[in-house]
Model the fold of this input.
Amino acid sequence: MEKWMRGDMHPSYRILMGPGPSNVHYRVYQAMSNPVIGYLDPQILACMDEISEMLRGIFQTKNQVTLAISGTGSSGMEASYVNFVEPGDVVVIGVNGFFADRMVQVASRCGAEVIRVEEDWGKKIEPEKIIKVLKEHPGTKICGVVHGETSTGVRQPLEEIGAYCRKGDTLLVVDAVTTLGGYDVKVDEWGIDVCYSSSQKCLSAPPGLSPITVSPKAMDVLRSRKSKVQSFYLDLLLLEKYWGQERVYHHTAPVSMFYALREGLRIVYEEGLEARFKRHEMLGDRLKMELEGLGFKPFAQEGYRLPMLTSVTLPDGVDDVKARSRLLNEYNIEVGGGLGWLKGKIWRVGLMGETCKARNIHCLMGALKEILA
Done:
């Protein structure tokens, strides 16, 4: 008998303190065990309506086109460019980390002429720096920015950039994969036109959905395209017809993930956004203080450090891979290593959603004291 036929799979329980996914509430697992039903069943359509309504509250928007793409956060990034970029369009992207650089790659594959506004990894990009480039290129179609850079733990201010884009035709596209549900994301107030996130970080559902919201300004741009959106699967005009009033079949939706996200969003609302943001801020500060006490040094720029993702340089003499392997194999705690040139130099420690609890900080500190000793 083949080895995979010999028994069930029983993965170990982990405390997920990396850059994502986060731990999942038991109610979300329970919701996922509900019967699978059809993608046009009235009960799943009602579930989708509830997801859209709750997402509008968390995105802090009135945008009608607010839905969850069937795919991980990267599908939200792809959708944000493939729908609005046509060959030759000018796209300005603020690049201060791994995922901002991925934005550049995605926009380039759509045929955009990409202008990078560079900053050192771990530092915010001064809004004036981006606005200066936008003024130099008045025909810019999209300005892309990462709100919470998962590779460095830095938070990017958006208000001034949004205010500038609002005055003209440029669309502001924002990556809120790490921040949504753990920090203010004020889509309407900040003038964001397209904002995407993920289900598995501060929303604490499994990976597999990418919440996205699109402004009327952006939808007007989409409807006036000269060519069809090159991706059928990510075409927001088709997704709008499935999620909206028309209910036109587009793809076989992952209904179990819809159940999961709906329950995860209900848990967010039960806690309340302000209370949830405060919890992430308070425990994020405590984690940073505790790590500094063990010799780790903050990597992200002071004053712009994410509460839900702490980046730290390692104490002298600590082997990155060995220490993280011991944490995982001996203590069942996952933390993230560095990406790109930061590999081996920093750790990324997440306190997202369901993981963001004082007891998880205590578990990590106890384990680290034993490992570092």
Q: What stands out?
A: The domain at 27-268 is CATH 3.40.640.10 (Aspartate Aminotransferase; domain 2). The chain has two domains: 15-21+272-372, 27-268.
